[in-house]
Automatic annotation (TrEMBL):
Sequence ranges of Gly residues compositional bias: 178-196
InterPro entries for the chain: LPXTG_anchor
Transmembrane segments: 208-230
Residue stretches in coiled coil: none
Keyword hit for Signal: yes
Signal peptide boundaries: 1-39
Domain Gram-positive cocci surface proteins LPxTG: 199-236
UniProt-annotated stretches for the region Disordered: 160-204
Domain of life: Bacteria
Protein name: LPXTG cell wall anchor domain-containing protein
Amino acid sequence: MARFYEQHGRRPRRAAGLAAAVAMTAGSAVMLTAPAAHAEVVDVNYQCKTPIGNKGAVSPIDIKSTPSGGAYKLVMSFQKGVSSSPVELGKGAMKPSALIKLGGAESGTVPVSGPPNDKAIPANTPIKISDLSGTYTPKGSGKVTFTAATLTIKALGTTTTCTPSNHPQPSLTLDVKGSGGSGGGTGGPAAGGSSGGQLPQTGPADSAIALGTLGGTVLLAGAAGVLWLTRRHQRA
């Protein structure tokens, strides 16, 4: 009876435990190869030079990313209004744009822009900035930070320039895999986009995840083979 349980009870449980452990290991390998991203809302103290004098305002800034081919769409969001106008700004009279400063593994800036105001802005009220979007293309690989930089507001033939004065922390950090080509940084094209803050998984990262999955499949197949040979030997 003891030999029966040894053959039909314990060994299958050990093999099942081995298969489960292999599956967990394969899953861990996939998770470890996924690129990481970190985003947070950061207060930015903008000091603005306007045609009628200097103004200041603090706005929480959020920067998110979405993978797009070999690049990333960036969206910069303002949670509070910045600066103001002594006269009403009619619909479509104000056009915002900004720069996002790169740090870490890359340097330079990414230009972002947004649509004109979709409704009139009353006089002497904070100007709500629409979401600004642009495209960032990695040049190399590593951890890259994205920080709010200069904001430009054009309205009624005038230009207001707002500069962060509190040395804000990055609003977004990405682990990127670059193709080694040009793009991103100063002079990169601005484009419409959407937000996501999602972890980028393009190019080499996808290959790494596929290899991790393949490795787990091979290990599971090996465990099944060991179990089959053990049972065949017992029957013999």
